[in-house]
């Protein structure tokens, strides 16, 4: 079926169905939902429709089937990057971005929009209980955790794409993902370029790719590496970026089973180390002396708060 015929067929089927669209909770009439496709490029309308679905009641199978047919017609492939990013980022900033991602995957749209992310579904990731979880499920949960704290767009984008290097990890090592950072970096850059993502989103995503798992593995006995982690991630010269990085880490932690809404256990350790570093008196011009002073301050802080 041609794309133009598919567009007409899609609208006619909805008119015959007599159902409301875009989520029962949204209370949108059939005409209002159809206007999404009339006013926008069909591919953009599909993204908006799925975003609305995510914020309402669960759609029925017929509705998802019709959306899948719209995706299969290839409308998403025709969206110019300058139009795609505004619509997709709006969806990512919705109240249920994880559910939105789930529906995009279900209808086959995610593979067209973000094949690097779609490839993560079905890939196991190490967890505590159970022993491994699906990476696709983790990303969905992390995005919904980000929505709960009203996280900014850069945080949500980082959570969406930071694991793209794990899709083809050697099977003999699963659920571990050795060297995923090296595989993921060029994919992340290509994905961000294709979406025309803004610079702050690209930078935080790359930072999360390199540093998030390191933050999760902070050892309480190693003051020097902890002080260096603070420095690398902007704790001293880019506090807003550092706060966003910590939000990524916290949402990633809470995505695992049994942790929804839980405090990030590394936050207390990081906060104590950061406060100690801010109180030192060392010349900023001598970087090595400054780093040694920070490491010593962190060690004392960990001792005083019972973290060693």
From TrEMBL:
Keyword Transferase included in the entry's annotation: yes
Listed GO MF terms: nucleotide binding; transferase activity
Keyword annotations: Nucleotide-binding, Transferase
Domain of life: Bacteria
SUPFAM superfamilies in the cross-refs: Poly A polymerase C-terminal region-like (SSF81891)
InterPro entries linked: PolyA_RNA-bd (IPR032828), tRNA_CCA-adding_enzyme (IPR050124)
Pfam families in the record: PolyA_pol_RNAbd
Protein name: tRNA nucleotidyltransferase
tRNA nucleotidyltransferase/poly(A) polymerase RNA and SrmB- binding domain boundaries: 72-119
């Amino acid at each position: 079926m041609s794309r133009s015929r598919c567009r007409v067929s899609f609208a006619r089927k909805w008119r015959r169905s007599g159902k409301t669209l875009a989520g029962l909770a949204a209370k949108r009439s059939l005409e209002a939902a159809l206007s999404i496709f009339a006013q926008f490029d069909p591919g953009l309308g599909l993204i908006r429709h799925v975003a609305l679905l995510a914020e309402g009641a669960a759609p029925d199978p017929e509705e998802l089937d019709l959306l899948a047919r719209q995706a299969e017609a290839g409308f998403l492939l025709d969206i110019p990057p300058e139009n795609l990013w505004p619509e997709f980022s709006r969806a990512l900033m919705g109240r249920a971005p994880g559910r939105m991602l789930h529906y995009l995957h279900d209808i086959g749209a995610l593979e067209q929009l973000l094949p690097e992310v779609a490839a993560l579904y079905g890939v196991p990731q190490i967890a505590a209980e159970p022993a491994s979880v699906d990476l696709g499920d983790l990303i969905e949960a992390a995005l919904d955790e980000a929505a709960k704290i009203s996280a900014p767009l850069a945080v949500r984008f980082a959570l969406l794409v930071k694991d793209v290097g794990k899709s083809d990890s050697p099977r003999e090592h699963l659920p571990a993902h050795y060297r995923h950072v090296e595989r993921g970096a060029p994919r992340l850059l290509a994905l961000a370029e294709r979406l025309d993502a803004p610079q702050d989103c690209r930078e935080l995503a790359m930072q999360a790719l390199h540093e998030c798992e390191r933050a999760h593995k902070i050892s309480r006995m190693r003051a020097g590496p902890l002080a260096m982690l603070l420095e690398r991630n902007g704790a001293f010269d880019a506090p807003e970026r550092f706060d966003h990085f910590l939000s990524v880490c916290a949402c990633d932690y809470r995505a695992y089973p049994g942790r929804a809404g839980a405090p990030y256990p590394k936050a207390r350790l990081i906060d104590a180390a950061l406060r100690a570093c801010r109180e030192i008196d060392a010349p900023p011009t001598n970087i090595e002396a400054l780093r040694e002073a920070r490491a010593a301050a962190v060690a004392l802080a960990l001792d005083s708060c019972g973290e060693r």
